Amino acid sequence: MWRRSAGLRLGLGGLGTLALAWWWATAGAHGTSVLAARFSPAATLSSLAGLLQQPDFFQHAWASLRRVLAALAIALLAGVPAGLLVGGLQRVDAALSPAFQFLRMVSPLSWMPIVVMVLGVGDRSVLFLLAFAGVWPILLNTAAGVRQLDPRWLLLARSLAATRAELLCRVILPGVLSHVLTGLRLSIGVVWIVLVPAEMLGIDAGLGYFILDTRDRLAYSELLATVLVIGALGFALDGAARRLQRWWVPGQGPAP
Which of 43, 155, 188, 230 has its C-alpha lying 20 to 30 A from 175's C-alpha? Predict the structure, then answer.
């Protein structure tokens, strides 16, 4: 309990330092700048309070969250089976790992022109970019989990005449679950970063679209307020992933 309380105080202190640096950059160091005043904490928090009273803003936030959750579901459906194959079969690993590593190093945003030409402007293009960005942490962590399984458990299951389905569901999947959840948490961070530029592909809803709209309206305080909302939602998603990991894998201990 004492360690948790001390960690909370340190975390609040870090956030307070960040807020102080924000004030200094916009008001303390540039108190006479009109442009800096538009990005000040007072103007931003005032705009944030106004945005939170607008139903349209919540619709933009929900549109972004919906896309992120759908992309994570697609990444899990694709990444976990691929990770099981790569981690469990040496020939599959040798054949596919170089291609996966190559694709992983290509920025998802570099696919934007091609994706728009193939899928058109809309949710499908955004979902593809987000899922492409999020699949690699899940795939690689799943493969790493399979490689770290204790071979004695597999030998014991086979000696008890376990079928392939039983071996998969009762030995392999529970054994790699911690790695899958770690990959999911990493994937959330990557997908959330790619979300905003991906939502600038001509769609009419989402936090990325809303940022472009505030820029076009020169509503700089609303722009920065939206940035705060994006950071808060991403922080909440990461916290939910950490709690899920601690709850589902209780022996692992707190996630960093």
Answer: 188
